[in-house]
């Protein structure tokens, strides 16, 4: 019987990226998930809070009799020593937002790999979907890298392209990249099975790092162009964007060109649009 590769999976407890990864690896006869490392108790990944059909990786792992760890200090030597007992061949990271220390990166027999839903070195960092939607991106991709001390900066193991229209919402971008990421996972698992993992350095000169969006990234003002306003609305959806009025700010979810729209007529830099509030009354932030 062929020996199975021993895996420790790192993912957020409510991650809709991590759950299908867990299921796919678990069902592969060449791999054995020895443990799940996930979010500390009482914490959730904000990306998925409030969405329909929530997932719970801890509950799923325990139903398969797989140990679950929810450490507060991921870099402690005591935690690293706890994982050593599993003698993992690989650590696989899929939407885990804590930074791994070198003691964990160097723990497995072979490698620690991270699956990132962007075409690295472009769109490194948090919330790549928001920025792709806001930037009207048409050329995207998904990437598997070797984990390194630099965030999303490790050598590229494999990368697959993803075509976008440039008119997607953040959620639509996310869904397309998540779907392609499973194809990427299957290909990487095949390479691991064949022990044919190869990698090459990222071109740091092309690196783009994006942090989590702030209120200013969601703000529409009189200096915003019409097309930019539409891009901001798509990037924020299904949550509202923010419209700057003279004395207050209003949450808005859509626009219309029709005077019959129940919205606020707003002068942008190169035109006017009717902005529809999140509710039918102005909401001051």
TrEMBL record:
The keyword Transferase applies. Residues 7-181 form the Formyl transferase N-terminal domain. Its EC number is 2.1.2.9. It is an enzyme of class 2 (transferase). One of its GO terms (cellular component) is cytosol. GO terms for molecular function: methionyl-tRNA formyltransferase activity. Keywords: Transferase. Coiled coil: none annotated. This is Methionyl-tRNA formyltransferase. It comes from Streptococcus gallolyticus.
């Amino acid at each position: 019987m062929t020996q199975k590769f021993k895996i420790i999976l790192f993912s957020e407890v409510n991650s809709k990226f991590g759950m299908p990864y867990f299921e796919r690896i678990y069902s592969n006869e060449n791999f054995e998930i020895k443990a799940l490392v996930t979010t500390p108790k009482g914490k959730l990944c904000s990306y998925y809070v409030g969405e329909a059909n929530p997932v719970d990786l801890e509950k799923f792992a325990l139903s398969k009799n797989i140990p679950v760890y929810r450490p507060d200090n991921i870099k402690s030597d005591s935690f690293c020593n706890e994982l050593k007992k599993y003698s993992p061949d690989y650590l696989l990271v899929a939407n885990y937002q804590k930074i791994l220390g070198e003691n964990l990166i160097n723990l497995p027999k072979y490698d620690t790999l991270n699956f990132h839903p962007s075409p690295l070195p472009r769109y490194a960092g948090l919330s790549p979907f928001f920025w792709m939607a806001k930037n009207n991106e048409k050329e995207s991709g998904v990437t598997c890298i070797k984990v390194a001390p630099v965030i999303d900066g490790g050598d590229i193991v494999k990368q697959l392209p993803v075509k976008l229209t440039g008119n997607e919402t953040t959620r639509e971008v996310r869904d397309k990249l998540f779907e392609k990421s499973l194809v990427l996972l299957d290909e990487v698992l095949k390479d691991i099975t064949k022990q044919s993992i190869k990698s090459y350095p990222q071109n740091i000169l092309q690196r783009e790092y994006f942090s989590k969006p702030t209120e200013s990234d969601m703000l529409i003002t009189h200096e915003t162009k019409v097309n930019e306003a539409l891009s901001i609305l798509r990037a924020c959806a299904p949550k509202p964007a923010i419209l700057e009025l003279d004395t207050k700010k209003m949450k808005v979810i859509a626009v219309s060109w029709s005077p019959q729209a129940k919205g606020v007529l707003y002068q942008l830099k190169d035109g006017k649009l009717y902005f529809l509030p999140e509710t039918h009354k102005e909401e001051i932030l």
